[in-house]
Input
Amino acid sequence: MAELEAVIGLEIHVQLSTRTKMFCGCELSFGDEPNVHTCPVCLAHPGVLPVPNEEAIRYALRIAAALECEVAPRSIFHRKNYFYPDSPKAYQISQYDLPLATNGRLGEVRIHRAHLEEDAAKTIHLGESGRIHGSGVSLVDFNRGGTPLVEIVTEPDLRSAADAAAWARLLRTTVRQLGVSDVNMEEGSLRVDANVSVRPPGSSELGTKTELKNMNSFRFLERGIEAELARQREAIEAGGTVVQETLHFHPEDGSLTSLRSKEEEHDYRYFPEPDLVPLAPTEAMLREARGSLPELPEARMRRYEGELGLSAEHAAQLVAEPEAAEYFEAACGAAAGVEPQVVANWVTGELAAALRQADGGGPAGSRVEPGALAALVGMVQEKQLSHGSGKQVLAILVAEGGDPAEIVEREGLAQISDSGELEAIVAAAVDANPEAAEQVRSGNRKAIGAIVGAVMKETKGRADGSEVTRLIGEKLGV
Amino acid sequence: MSAELLELSVAQAAARIAAGEVSRQEYSEAWRERAAADELNAYLWRAEDGAGEGEGPLGGIPVAVKDIFCTEGIETTAASRILAGYRPPYTATAVRRLREAGAGLLGKTNMDEFAMGSSNENSAFGPVLNPWDRERVPGGSSGGSAAAVGGGLAPCAIGTDTGGSIRQPAALCGIVGLKPTYGAISRYGMIAFASSLDQCGPLTRDVADAALLLDALQGRDPCDSTSVGIEGGVGAPARQDLKGLRFAVPVELAHDAIESGVREVFEATLKRIEGLGGEIAAAPLPHAEHGISAYYVIAPAEASSNLARYDGVRYGLRAEPAAELIEMYESTRAEGFGDEVKRRIMLGTYALSSGYYEAYYGRAQRVRTKISADYAAAFEEFDFVVTPTSPSVAFRLGEKTDDPLAMYMNDFFTVPSSLAGLPAISIPAGLAEPDGGGPLLPVGFQIAAPAFAERRLLDAAYALEQAING
Output
């Protein structure tokens, strides 16, 4: 029996980085003392009314534009009713049958809908279980309550856990580039739930799905989906069935436990929120949202591959971090006569490695100016500097910044360009390694490495490797 | 302070205060003494000192405020045990606007719990008595405000009207009650019963005072997205005749249960309208008779959601220690809410449940749309729609408490204009005996107008009021 096909859709919550909350004037915060960013509105005192945050609407429209969605001329807020201490009104203001945006697309995945809503407060259950049952004391922090959220729901277009994680990364990069959210999974400003089912290959029907929650990193997202797919395949292959339920992912051991079954689902008693009028964006707002879009990862990817001739791997790597991509482009602009692919090699290779070794930050925030990197790459390409010396200069740039030419001068790293001087060093090295020389003469080209190494040691890396190899070969007559 | 001063209308008193002929301290003190002598249970809280400050049109006028409006630091309960002791951290926009117009707070008035009721018998703090006959109800839900003004315990008051809660008690207490167009006055700080219907309005001794208060209260409020205000305000009404105005009497609202005394006063009032040059004709409002059914789905549905926040977590009553969260919710709400509130929460929860939503809430909303269309059609031909305010005069305490449906029928004439969001006023039109005999009691006459036509509505009501008072 062929392996059952995976069918995966994602539900993503994006916390918007507006100045204030969705329906009141309290400031957004993360990590502040509990319950300091609250007011009668977000604590749901009697008589209060919500007033929509215009900035949040603009941000949501920007997301809708980036996801190529159709924007509803009039969308409606609904009340989603449920009792829980994280919901002070006992309903969440969300959108239901008339969402802000529908029918979009990002990469190969269709977007079913995107809508605006408010975040819940945070509950903390003191006690062993960490859950409300059996907890001695439960505390509520309303700082987060009312933070604007955009919920994005995809069609079930993903076919593997790895694809789902990769697509979620693309979405994260896209939203980040819009400047509307921190999209940080650890801090919860990006939350990804997955709807997972399996079906026989070639089938067009959908199997019974389960919903996976609490995967707060891309790695956990992939592991969670992987584990659930395995569980579902095993169940069906053993002649069983999948039960519709919501599952909680445990990052400690990668296991999944049931939160609630379909029968235990809430009846949210949705009805149109009478305290708000329909949301009808003006033509100017829509124009502004479309006009404000930066070049998004997908388009940038195509340009890097098509126009700049980058490999798909390098293009993807750069595009994943908008700051790195912008750094790369600035360096390309400053590096006349150097192939973009060579600059890309340095940005994603040598520079990334040097930064990792130093402090782990990205290139944009480092001391290495894009112009300095460009100059350095140019010097290496022009053979004014050996590749090895180039890496030494880069390490100094990472530590102190500055101008690579000056560093080369100061450290005496300029490549040996006097061929007489280099020939003498080569001759000495050949004499000092008679065994290797003999092996090379008798046809073992690999043995040349020992002699090259000796030359490099003597020149402290200031020699051009290929020139050294050529000279050795000449000397030994091979 | 002469008793004569307290007989002045608010407009007259404000003019005397502004002219320096009367001290606002003395005037406020005199009303506080009246309020202190309340034997009607009209007040839940009374101010001990102070007077309105500022030079606005209501400078120095003390106002009785229904206990559904939040007042910072002053207990606000909506007459419910669940909010006993609750002191809001903010003040309702309507109350703030009154203050900005120079008014002071005289007291907080009793009401049906969360504005649910037509007799004021649903208050957790005891019923209010009708100033005309203490064995009878003052109407509801703004019964405390109506009794305070009708009983001479306040010069004016504000209340809220969801399906008739200003107009019906005004009628039963012999005063003027105005429900403005939905959106005319901010709802911010007004404890919600049914958000798409709730509207603040004045209860006053005459029409000119209603206009004066409305001007102070109305206006767009950035804290209420559904508020729009009345462009240009209303000004003081001055019209003396009704020439050229057409009044529609809806045929479908010729309701069987209407008392004969009420019918007589209503018909006499129609004659007066004709005497003032107005035209009367029957007009169809084909869906208005379904108003009560639609209203008692929509209002409880919204209430079931609006009242869900009273859970014992953040403020108000919390029932004694519970082992589990659900138990805390259940016992808090079981102890905190009265029977009528519970009844409506259950009705509304049911109506919104998945599988029933279309059959109840969806259908009720469609009826609502049709009622609005009926009024729109009527206003193509007519300036106003007139009916009795209430099918009966004030009834006895306890008379309808065991029969919720009979109680709900009190709203028969007031609910349709509420569902359509239209302004409507009740003015005292005369006195009548209840069916089966009894004392002479006030009868209200209701005039409804197109949305935001308050100026025309108050003008017509003023002309009619002058004629009725002879």
Observations:
- Chain A has three domains: 5-290, 295-411, 419-476.
